[in-house]
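Lab notebook, bench 4. Still working through the backlog of constructs that have no structural model yet. Next entry is a single chain of 571 residues. Request: give me the structure tokens for it.
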Amino acid sequence: MAIDQFSLDMLALAEENVMRGKITRREFIRVAIAGGLSFASASSFAANAANAVANQSRNVKALSRRYDYVIVGAGTAGIVVASRLSENPAAKVLLIEAGGWNEVKSVEDPALWPTNIGTAASYVYPYVKAAHCNGRTIPLAMGRGIGGGSAINAMVWARGHRENFEKWAELTGDSSWGYDSVLAIYRKIENWQGDPSRWRGERGEIFVDKDRHNNPIVPAMMRAAASVGIPSTDDLNGQTMEEDGGCGVAQTLIKDGRRYSIANAYLYPALSRPNVTVLTDSTVIGIELTGDRATAVRLLHAGAEKRIEASTELVLSAGSVATPKLLMLSGIGDSEDLRKLDIRVAVHSPNVGRNLRDHILMGGCIYEYKEALPPRNNLGECTLFWKSDSALPVPDLQPFQIQVPYATDEVAKQYAIPVAGWSLLPGLVQPKSHGQITLRSKDVRQMAIVDPNYLAEPDDMKALVRCVEICRAIGSSPELSEYVKREVAPGRLDRQATENFIRNAAGTYFHLSGSCAMGREASSVVDPQLRVRGIRNLRVADASVMPNLTTGNTMAPSVIIGERLAALLTS
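Model written out:
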């Protein structure tokens, strides 16, 4: 029998509550059967959930002073590493997370993802006085809590282009980071719901599907893109990512109308394993070094400071801001900068915190509806990849159509933004500009300073001017005329005005990466095996190790990083 949305919502709430031990197995079974599940399915889920809750409660109460593996950060990559390592019953694994379990409706409901920003489920770093963006303050959000970014993002599964990974292999000198190896991992981990092909996997952990029951504006957008020379594609992660690009329905981690985060895919099935412990609401304040070896972490949990040793490996998966922050606080960074803050230098590693990259997303090219259509799925069902210059080796543009009007504060002051509108947001996913993460002080409670240095390179402005031109051509095409009462922003502008609009509209795709980049050179923060140079027993697995950005959203490549490290540690 079909399950209606109300029943799905009730089931989702019941699943969360039984997984956290807030309702009994009997109560869950009653709600689940009323929602349309069979008694057998409801009983099986309840039994597994109860076992997981009891196991984690026991493990946390009996917290050990030593584990084989300690992983700091339960975001996308950290969860993958913890889950894979715990598949070996002899390995004792601790996963530490500063946030909580993200038990809120805004995490589960795909349409509510923007409301997570600025809540307990995120960190928001103010990018103050953006030098090339008219001195604006641009908020930069990072995930906090179980699932990290995958628990609060727009759920888009974008693998990246062939040439991105070939570049990784070149920069690291390791073919294991190349496209063929990465493609094999994607095929292994995907549970792809679309048509079978040589690019896709069907039996993996990660439920990937195209957005279903699309807003009618989506096929119109695809026809409009085709009218300006951008071909339509049925699979944005297939052959399209080996070519010049295309326009299609976004692929997302949404199952039965609910977010299916990396935690759903990897962590929840592991919670009943006796050898894995998940410690939430715990802030790591430092890495303890004994000579050239990382031996332990110091953390705050339940109002007390604790010390936990890692006998085999300590893994930092805290994200592109917190990972370099922890390294620097522990004496691994630029020696001159550390001494200024009275931090004892353990390893002079001048590139810690540098090479910070981010995808730029503008807000935006906005249109008023003739007749309002309600948004569906994750609000943004259609995207395209294209080149600002045909000579480029890889698509550098990723505009996204979203079914609500979106503008930065500065753009909203300039234009009358309608309630009933939609946007085509210009996006740059191969920027040349890069910035830096720095410390304010040696006090762990002080937030790091994040400066992505948007638009510092003239080529980035040139590419975004072209992207605005493409978005306006698509938005004004006859194929979309049924959905356009008027163009709200930016309108026809000369080059100088267009550049000023871009400086006011530029924002983030929330894809901060690269601040602990891997490479073959001795100056790189981590080597191709993700080992922190100069320190034994310490590795990094998160988006901070990306030596250059992938074309598209960064969740999927972060899973690849987690899988690669897990393979390195278990091979």
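Notes after review: The first strand starts at residue 66 and ends at 72. The mean pLDDT is 93. Flag for follow-up if needed.
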